[in-house]
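ingest -> validate -> predict -> emit
validate: passed (alphabet ok, no gaps, 326 aa)
predict: started
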Amino acid sequence: MSLNLARRGLGALRGLQLSDAFSRPVRVAIAQTHVRRICLSTFNQSLRPISRARQYPGFLSQRLVKAYATSSDEKSAKKKTTKTGKTKSSTKSVKKTKPKAKPKPTPKRSGRKPATEKQKEAAKAAKTRQSLKDLKATALEPPKRLAERVWNLAVSSKLPEAQKVHKTQMEAFKGATDLAKLISEEEREQFAKQAEANRATNEAEYEKWIKSHTPLQIKEANQARARLTKITNKKYFALRDDRLVKRPTPAYMIFYIERVEQGDFKHMQVKDISARVSEEWKGLTDSERQKYIQLQNEEKERYHREYREVYGEEPASSPEPESKTL
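emit:
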């Protein structure tokens, strides 16, 4: 019986066709199939059964395929995430390496408070004083002149005597004028001689002082004096110098001088002469007026030529009129 049962069992095993499976090592076959299945899953190829159904059970192969497929998918997903992470970090690093715009430096505060109206007025007054000082320095100051009048000499001679009697300067000056009115003829003649001598001395000193400056300095001094006369209430006379270039005479003034020199207006006043000459000038024709215009052009040429020779520079387009000379 036992022999028969063994034979029956062997027959059953033969029906299952497991004889080949037990004829070779199972572990090696399973390992080889596992490797082949992993390679196919990584290359996304379709899985085909390597062995026939009769060689390996179907449930064993399906479990192994699923297990290795899921593991390979997880590994590929991890690789993708690491790659994407690297690209993001690289882009972030590029952004960080971009040079940033330098911030503009904030202006330093001086810490001073804005000037008040009183301070502004004081600064303006100081600037005006400085400009006046500069003008006066450019205007030049001629030497002091001695008294050239008899009356001035008489008062100045009687002033020391009046100061002995009167206490204040005003009272002393008034007393000197009263004493000057009582001088004798002999004293008057002496004062007249002294005045004449003083006049000659003043002329000599003035000419010497003028010659100590260049014509250009005298010209600039006269311009500064004209400016000071406009700014202040004091009259600044122009300096007298024969070396200065005379300004060109206009056409009307040439006609005026010519008509006065003819002697037709001897018994007329200056106001009437000016009105009469102005009417005659307006009544001239263009051909008659052309003569005086030509003389005016010659005056301009003369002025420009002498200006360059005397002052050493080009003349201004429109010269300023001269004020009264000293």
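The radius of gyration is 63 Å.
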